Each structure stands twice: as structure tokens, then as C-alpha cells.
Amino acid sequence: MRTYLLLLFCVALYGSNFVLGSLLLEAFPALHLSAYRLLVSSAFLLIYLVATRGLAKITFRDFVYLVPFVLIGMLLHQVSFFTGLRTTDATTASLILSLAPIFTALFARLFLKEPLTIRMAAGSIVALAGVFLVVGTGGSMGTAITEGVWIMFICMLALSGSMILMKKLTERMDAFVATVYTTVLGCISVYPVAVWSEPRVQVQPQFWWWVLLVGSALLIQGLCAVIWNAQIRKVGAAKASLFLNLQPFVAMILGYITLGTPISLTQVAGSVLIISGVVLATVQGQRTRKTQDDKLKLSPTER
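The structure assignment produced for this chain is given below.
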């Protein structure tokens, strides 16, 4: 339950990232925004690592998963996320990224041999139906398939792939150490792309824009990354990804609070489906696993 609560905390901030990202794009170019946030989170995580544990050695075999994660989970994901938000509204973006649990479960079955249970599949379908209700009533389902939609789809695939790679990476090294190194290397990889694709950019936002950027970087890309990667190791990539279905629900609530966007009864019903789907695939799965563990403790005769 503690793991699930931590995942919910992360998803609450991840859901707000769609709104915060859209706001920050009014003051910062897309790729520069990604580079700045990674720079802030990298500095924070690296200082904390050195102060508490010291730098850990990385072997050549670690780079087998470290380099692909940086290229897919950091460079491709960050670039596609902020580039897609320039031409796609936050609601549509949250819908597309809510497909990540389905693809993560498929990737986990293929590459990690994680079980794809009937309960987990049913929970994914129920939650996904809720996602379509939540965002579809706002008109986003009627939008054309624009370039931004395709970019967000690529972002979703990168997110799914990164969770598989992080699961393998945390089997070889501590989750926090893996988070620090991937974030730092991600910053190093994103910044040249930002300079090359958006040259001669003069960023002169007001002070409060910088406060929002730094705060979101520390919480979403710093603290949440540490918590999320640690919990993936405990519950598996497929099950952790199910919580991403809650992102549109968070974006809807945050939009209502900050922007005054009305919430319809259909959206409320969709939110109930989302929560029900996550509960079906997680809490019930935990009970089943506990029953199986109890059976293993019995002697062959007692079984």
C-alpha cells in the first residue's frame, strides 16, 4: 500500500506536468525548457548523491542499459514531450500518454517475461475507457491527427520503453544512483539538441517563470523520478504504469482549479472508471499474490 501511495503521489505531479508544461512554453522555447529543467534536476540529484553516498562506479555492462535509456527515456521522451505540447493541448496529450500502460504491459511481457494476467488486462481496459470519457467530452477526441499528435504518440512509446529499461537497470544498480546518472546524461544529451534546433534564442522571462521552472524540475523530474524508479523495482514496470491512467483525471481537476474549466457528469463517470481500473489491476492483484505466497509457505501435505 505504501508503494501504491507513492505511485499516486508521483502521478499527481506527472498529471500536473501537462498544464505546467503548457504554461512554461509561453515563456521558454520547447527544447530549451527541457534542457533547463534537466539541468536543475541534475544538479540537485548529483549534489545529493555526492553528499550522502558518493559517486558509484559504472561497469561496461551497466552501459548496455544506461545508454539506451538515456537515448529513449530522456532524449527522445523529453524532446517529443515538449515539442508535441507546442501544437497539442494538454488534454489530448494526456490521453495519448495514457496508452503507455498497455504498451508497457506488452513490452514487459516480451522483454521482462512479466505475467500479463486477466485482471491486469481487464483493469487496463476499464481505466482506458475512463480515459476516453474524461478527455473525449472536452472535444479532444474530435481533433484531427496532427503532427503534434504523432509526436506525442512517439513520446508515449518512449515512456513505455524507458520503464522497461529502468526495470532492467535497477536490477544492476541502486534505483537512486540509476536516476541520478540517467538524469545527468539526459541533460548532456538534450542541451546540444536544443542549441542545434533552436539557435539564437534569447530567453528573458520574468522571475516567477524561473521559479515555476525550477520548482517543477525539482519535484517532477527530481523527486518523482527517484520515487517512481524505486517503486518500479518493487511492483514491476507493467503494474506501475497502470497508475499513469490517472494523469488525465489530475489534469482535469487541475484545469478546473487553475483555469476554471467546467467538469461534466460524463467526465466524473470517466474518472470513476479510471480509479476502478487501477484498483482492479493493483489491489486485487496484491490479494491474489498474498494468497499464492501463503500457499507456498504450506507443506506439500497441507497443500
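Interim note for the steering committee: Residues 265-297 form the longest helix (33 residues). Confidence is low (pLDDT under 50) at residues 138-144, 284-303.
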